[in-house]
Amino acid sequence: MRFSAIVLAVLAGWFGLQLSIRAQEMEPLRLDDGSTWSTEEIETDRDSFTPATSLAGQQRWILESAYSFIDNRRVYDTHSLPELLVRYGVTERMEWRFGTNYEIGGAGNPISANVADDLPDEPMLEEETNVSYGLKYGMTNQFGWLPKSSLLVVGYTPVAGEQTKTNLGLVYVGGWTFANRWMLDGAMRYTTGGFEGDDFNVWSPSTVLKVPVGEHWKTHVEYFGVFSQGRERETVQHFISPGAHYLIHRNLEIGSRFGWGIGEDSPNFFVNIGGGIRF
Q: What is the spatial distance between Cα 178 and Cα 10, in angstroms, rounded to a whole number?
C-alpha cells in the first residue's frame, strides 16, 4: 500500500512537472530588450496571407517573388506572377515597399492580396498588370502577452488591363513568439475594390500558426477569409492553407503554400511557390 502511494506520488509529480514545462514553453517570450525590428533569419511577407510582424531592418533590402495558380470554380483559372515585392528599411521601425504583378484568368487573385477579388457572372479571360507602393511601420514590440504588431498602408494602381481604379489597402498584424519558437500571428486587412462600376469594400481576417522543424524548415497552417461589403452581389470566401518554407541561408529562403476554398464563392484550390532574399 505504501509502495503504491509512493508510485502514485512520483507519477503525479512527473505529470505536474510536464504540465509546468509545457505551460512554460507556451509562455510568450519577453522581447522588449531593445532588439531591432528585423529578425536574425529572413521573414518574408509572402510566406503566408498574414504578413510578418517584422520589418526589413534599417538600410536593408528584401526582395520577394512568387507564382500563384488559382483553380476557380465557375470562371477561367487564374495565373499570377511575378508577385514582386521590394522592401527597404528606412529606419528600424519603417520600411518602404514597391511591387508589381501580372494576372491572367477569369477572376482576381484573392490569395496574394495584391488586388481586391472579383467574380464575374460570365466566364471572361482578363489580363491586368498593377503596381503597388506604400510603407510598413512597427507599432508595438512583444512584452509578455502584449503582441508585436505592425501597420501596412499600400496603394494598388492598374497600369494595363480593363481596370483603372487605384485601390487602398490597410493591414494591421500582430502576434507572439513563444519559448518553443512557435509563432502565432493574426491580421485584419481592409481593401477598397471595384468591378464594372460597382465600388465596394473588402475585409480579410487571417490567422496563422508557424512551427519550426529543425534549423532550416518552418511549417504553418493558416485560415483567411475575403468578404465583400457594399457590393451589388456580396461574396464570402474562406480558405484553409498549410505551407512549408526552407531556409537555405539566414538571408535566403524558398517555400510553398497551398490551400482549399470553402464555399461556392471560393476557388477550389490554389498553390503558391516563391522565395525571398535579404541583403
A: 29
User: What are the residues whose beta carbons fall under 8 Å from the beta carbon of 60, sequence distance 6 or more?
Assistant: 38, 88, 89, 278, 279
- Kind of pairing between the strands at 94-105 and 126-140: antiparallel
Cβ neighbours for 160, distance < 8 A, ≥ 6 positions apart: 127, 128, 129
Assign 16 to helix, strand or coil. helix
Q: What is the DSSP letter of 20?
A: H
Q: Can you give the pTM of this predicted structure? A: 0.85
φ/ψ bin of 251: left (φ > 0), alpha (ψ from -120 to 50), beta (otherwise): alpha
Same domain, 148 and 244: yes
Q: Is there a cis peptide before residue 82, judged by omega within 30 degrees of 0?
A: yes
241/208 same-domain check:
yes
Instruction: Give the residue carrying C-alpha cell 506520488.
Output: 9
Residue 44 to residue 63: CA distance in whole angstroms: 9
* Side chain identity at residue 206, one-letter code: S
Whether residue 67 has pLDDT greater than 70? yes
Note whether 66 and 274 are within 8 A (CB). yes
Give yes or no: residues 158 and 240 share one domain.
yes
Looking at residue 140, its pLDDT comes to 95
Cα 155 to Cα 165: distance, rounded to the nearest angstrom: 11
Convert the pLDDT of each residue in 75-111 to its tens digit.
Answer: 899 999 999 999 999 999 999 999 999 999 988 888 8
